Amino acid sequence: MDTDQRMPPLGTPLADSKFSLNSAGVAGFFGGKEAISAMATVHLYRGRRWLGWYNSPGSYTIAKRFGRMANSRFWDGLFPGPNDSPAVSFGLDGKKGPQYTAALSGTTMHTRHLAHLTMERSKEVEAEEIKGRVTNSFDVAYLAMKHVDYDTPIKPLPPNNALFGLIPITTSVVTCLMCALVFDWYSCSMILIGIISSGLASLVIGKGKLVITSVKNPAAGVPPGHGILMGEDEVVVIKGEERDVNAITKGRYDLKTHSKQGDLEKGAVRSYHAIGLCSLLLLLQFLLQLLLVPQGMLFGQIMFLVSLGVSWGYSSYLSSLEKEKIQADILFETLGNPEMLRFCAGTRTTMAVFVCLLVFHGVKRSSPEEDRASRIKIICSCLANDTPAWGRWREKVVQQLLNIDDGSDSLPYLAEDEEDRALLESERKLLKVLLEDAGAAFRGYLRVRDRLPDDSSHQKVEIK
Question: How far is residue 189's CA from residue 193's CA, in Å, rounded to a whole number?
Answer without folding.
Answer: 6
